[in-house]
Amino acid sequence: MAFLEVEDLKVHFPIKGGIFGRTVDYVRAVDGVSLSLEKGKTYGLVGESGSGKTTTGRAIIGLNKITSGKVTFDGNDISNLKSRSEVRKDVQMIFQDPYSSLNPKKRVIDIVAEPLRNFEKLSKKEEKIRVQELLELVGLSPESILKYPHEFSGGQRQRIGIARAIALKPKLIIADEPVSALDVSVQAQVLNFMQDIQQELDLTYLFIGHDLGVIKHMCDKIGIMYKGRYVEEGTTEEIFNNPQHIYTKRLVAAIPDIDPKRRQEQTQFRQEVKTEYEQSYNDYFDDEGLAYKLQPVTDTHLVALPEKG
Amino acid sequence: MSEKLLEVKNLKTSFRIKDDYYAAVDDVSLSVNKNEVLAIVGESGCGKSALAFSIMGLHNRAKIEGNIMFKNQDIANISPAKLNKLRGNNMGMIFQDPLTALNPLMEIGDQIGEALLLHNKDLSKEKRKDKVIQLLTKVGIPRPEHVYEQFPHELSGGMRQRVVIATAIANEPELLIADEPTTALDVTIQSQILDLIKELKDDMDAGIIMITHDLGVVAEMADRVAVMYAGQIVEVSDVYTLFESPLHPYTRSLFNSVPNTAEAQSKLHVIQGIVPSLQKLPREGCRFSARIPWVEESAHEEHPELHEVSPGHFVRCTCYKHFNFPDSSKEEQQHGIS
Ligand SMILES: Nc1ncnc2c1ncn2[C@@H]1O[C@H](COP(=O)(O)OP(=O)(O)OP(=O)(O)O)[C@@H](O)[C@H]1O
Ligand SMILES: Nc1ncnc2c1ncn2[C@@H]1O[C@H](COP(=O)(O)OP(=O)(O)OP(=O)(O)O)[C@@H](O)[C@H]1O
Ligand SMILES: [Mg+2]
Ligand SMILES: [Mg+2]
């Protein structure tokens, strides 16, 4: 069994309506996602905004209630809350929104030290040294410890969140767009750093992102989500060099080109893929506009297509 | 064609920390024409958002010095009421942080509707709703009628960002400041939003300030690019020249940090040292010198100025003439967890 195994995960949110506030329908935020992650590897989760990536991550770590399905971590079923408490230390999350995930009333030292206080008994002095080390690791100056989140820029705040997430040397990190708010140099620093500690601590990453350049750089395997479901899964090479699903093709075509001289060509290419997308939409999505079940292309490459025959 | 829309002259924005003021934006001058996209790139914490907030008049506690001319009117020193009106009608801003820009207790539809009212206070409730739904559709939000009645916390990160975008473009502003408008968006939605911004520019002749750290977005969108470091502009040029021959050591380092698609999983270039906090910002000499310690001191100017190296291409300090990447910078400082 893989290190992290997610089987047919569903997370549905009720939509309330009418004067009695009854549940009239559900948002099927995650609607049958399966993935498996090997220890020490990085798995990329990409897809449309609102397709359920964050919800998947939050469900794995226990912040969203699972409607159905199963999550197994390191051999333990962690689908329900009770079994989860034992692995709390081993699974950490870096949150997408560096603003709302940091308590504005707390100083940096208290934010970063919070997990340490829950799980390790350190003296005040040891704690301060550890926090300063962690801050230095993510490229923040040691004097930052006495400041409040609002005194930092967006990118700086994200690094505070990363420092907190790695404080306990977890085994699995769910990184929800960990570098989206960062400038490229700091991004490079954080990515290098994530790779370094991955080797050192044998860390496993579930890396949620939308910058396909970053995903390509970091991930061994990639899953592409669309409206709560997978449209494609494969190795990084398969996804980038041989995308099969029309949504994946469109995603790859939308990557901005770093050469301003190719603007024209890029726009044209994108237009072509868009036309193909519109013309073949019905071959790739069902009547409700949802993805079909995954079909194997190779051992590692799966594509959501209607069943043949 | 190249009619000036915004001109910022010697802008200095300082925050009070304890008993002193520290400038986060330090003597910045720039201009934006109608029908032009000026991209601003730079290290996290270099003052991009502070600059944007200053132009929009949104800093309530900072000290602002210098001139901000919007259509030949100095808006750095006008009454809050006038500014408010200008903001609702003529200037729009897409905030970097969608959550602080949105009211957590207000339905999405009402928030965008409120922006529309600023422009036209006689707009009927029905018309307003139609317009809001139209805007939500424009920014690619699925099921806009449903989202109309939702609260910010019920939306995904990218959906929130699109609500902020819808609010900013609701009144078709003449000047749009987009602070990291697409960072929370997947690339297909991103390209849709970028098209929307291009439309605003091409069809309405709007001027755009685009703050981003995605050099791909800069390459696709910008007419001109200003590179900021530690509160100052260190290089400015048209986009083609900048991408073909970046000169300032900071700009060159930036290009080197982009994940190179060819060498997956290898080490990326990192600029040495850490981003100085506002209090520790170097204020004298070349501000970037501490990050490139191998460059001799004599290469830097004592009071670095912007030099025009070719028409419209400006670089600060003379150190670019002597700059090279050392081989050792590839094997960056070893990170470890102890
Ligand atoms: N607490 C909630 N209540 C109701 N609906 C929710 C809640 N949280 C998320 N959703 C809905 O679930 C869907 C998936 O949201 P999620 O945040 O997982 O998307 P995402 O893939 O992470 O998107 P993004 O790339 O924009 O961050 C969205 O339609 C969102 O509106
Ligand atoms: N209200 C404030 N009080 C004190 N310092 C502030 C305040 N707002 C910003 N700063 C500081 O001013 C500097 C510039 O911040 P700003 O938010 O403009 O950075 P930025 O270039 O937008 O960075 P990012 O790319 O991370 O968003 C930073 O050092 C930041 O810590
Ligand atoms: Mg998300
Ligand atoms: Mg900013």
UniProtKB/TrEMBL annotation, chain A:
Instruction: Give the organism, scientific name.
Output: Oceanobacillus limi
Report the Gene3D superfamilies cross-referenced here. Answer: P-loop containing nucleotide triphosphate hydrolases
Q: Return the similarity comment.
A: Belongs to the ABC transporter superfamily.
List the GO biological process terms. Answer: peptide transport; transmembrane transport
Ordered alphabetically, the record's keywords are: ATP-binding, Nucleotide-binding, Transport
Protease keyword on record = no
All residue ranges annotated as the ABC transporter domain in the record: 4-252
**Protein's UniProt name:** Peptide/nickel transport system ATP-binding protein
Q: Which residues form a coiled coil?
A: none
The molecular function GO annotations come to: ATP binding; ATP hydrolysis activity
Q: Which residues form the signal peptide?
A: none
An example Pfam family from this entry, by short name, is ABC_tran
Keyword Cell inner membrane set for record: no
UniProtKB/TrEMBL annotation, chain B:
Specify the protein's topology with respect to the membrane: Peripheral membrane protein
* CDD domains, per the entry: ABC_NikE_OppD_transporters
Pfam families, per the entry: ABC_tran, oligo_HPY
The name this protein carries in UniProt is: Peptide/nickel transport system ATP-binding protein
Q: Which family does it belong to?
A: Belongs to the ABC transporter superfamily.
Keywords assigned by UniProt, alphabetized: ATP-binding, Cell membrane, Membrane, Nucleotide-binding, Transport
Record NCBIfam families: oligo_HPY
User: PROSITE patterns under this entry?
Assistant: ABC_TRANSPORTER_1, ABC_TRANSPORTER_2
Coiled coil regions, renumbered to chain: none
Q: Does the keyword Transport apply?
A: yes
Give a GO biological-process term.
peptide transport
Q: Which residues form the ABC transporter domain?
A: 6-255
Give the UniProt subcellular location, in the record's own words. Answer: Cell membrane
Provide a GO CC annotation, any one: plasma membrane
- Recall the GO molecular function terms of this protein's record: ATP binding; ATP hydrolysis activity
Gene3D superfamilies membership:
P-loop containing nucleotide triphosphate hydrolases
User: Is Glycoprotein tagged as a keyword?
Assistant: no
Signal sequence span per UniProt?
none
Source organism lineage? Bacteria, Bacillati, Bacillota, Bacilli, Bacillales
